[in-house]
Fold each of these.
Amino acid sequence: MNNSGTVSIGNPFLSAATTAQAASLSNTTAGTIRLQGIATGTANQATLAIAGAAPSSVAGTLAVGGDADLVFGSGAITGIGSGAQLALSGRRRGSRSAPGRRARR
């Protein structure tokens, strides 16, 4: 997924789990990715599943809130680029690399 605009996946009122999948992720400095799941701890989670490796650093804006996960096939985000924003909020938020392994936030 190459993004230089705005991508929003899910919302705080999901009535079912929502998953978007992509082979890789490239977010430009102008790009915004918002991943939002329901906040009440149900199974109605928003997930962006990237089959490839995590970028080494965040570019643009990446916001993960509520019951939401950003999952990578391997690697982990280890930095935040100049002018970039990483926002994590809510009960279950974050990113994982490889199935079942949650990256440190």
Note: The chain has no helices and twelve strands.
Amino acid sequence: MAAEVKKEIELEIAHVLFIDFVDYSKLSVNEQHARIAELNEAVRLSEQFQRAEAINRMRRALDMFIVEGPMTSIPLHQKILAHPDFQRGDIYTAFLEHMNDPVKNRGIA
């Protein structure tokens, strides 16, 4: 039996937009593509999409950063980026203080 390759699957919440254009199926292929392109642009311009994209870019950058020797704040930044409140944009003055408090951070490690 061939060696099995196991990939760790990371699940994320996704919002799905179902559309029903009037007479969509009667449109030409080019017109259908244009309608879908309009929807894609609307989604990409949304605050939620742009926040998620920025967080993903920041995570990738921090994951690629390698510093040997002195301690850095990279682990703290990674923990902040992974926190659900931060991802929702629900930031407040005492956010950092509450991140390490199991009662105030709703049990998030």
Note: Residues 47-64 form the longest helix (18 residues).
Amino acid sequence: MDSTEYSITITKRAEDNLDEICSYISLNSSHEQAEIFLGEIINKIENLKILPKKWRKVPELNDPNFREFIFRRKYRVIYQIFENTNTIEIITIFSSRMLLRL
């Protein structure tokens, strides 16, 4: 079993997505709920360091290096695995009701 640990980067687009989602939660629920959401999703992203291929391939793409996990049954977190540099790039985070648009 491979024990390589990957580093994680997050695109500006994904950062903006997180900001928008947290702002929405803060306005429609509470600031505390937005903080909890952010902590939980960051924790799940950090877990990719050890098992980046655990989650499914992105159905809209024909590339095994593009993966996604569904967070809280509401949000798709799309990421790309770069085997040559042991890096994972978080590309975008959006509603699971939507199709991917890159």
Note: The beta strands are 7-10, 56-57, 66-71, 75-82, 87-95.
Amino acid sequence: MLLVFAGGKPPEGTWLILSRFGAAYYFLHFLVVLPVVGRLETPLPLPTSIRRPVLRPSRGGSRSEISQQAGHDDDNDNDSSKRPDQ
């Protein structure tokens, strides 16, 4: 916001100094701060499978539990609704 506001002012006096500091921080943020933060932060581990829930299941149970109770098998590859090229 500083650069937006200072860009509308004449380039002299205090606005010139503030614009230079704002521009320096802007480039410093993307070229130095973000790469350092990316190296310091530890990412969460990837889930073992996309089918397994990452969060706890809700009170109603997970979708696979509900489909198994209803007699459906999620791992059935012989589904007739699939196209032949799948």
Note: The helical segments are 2-7, 14-40, 63-69.
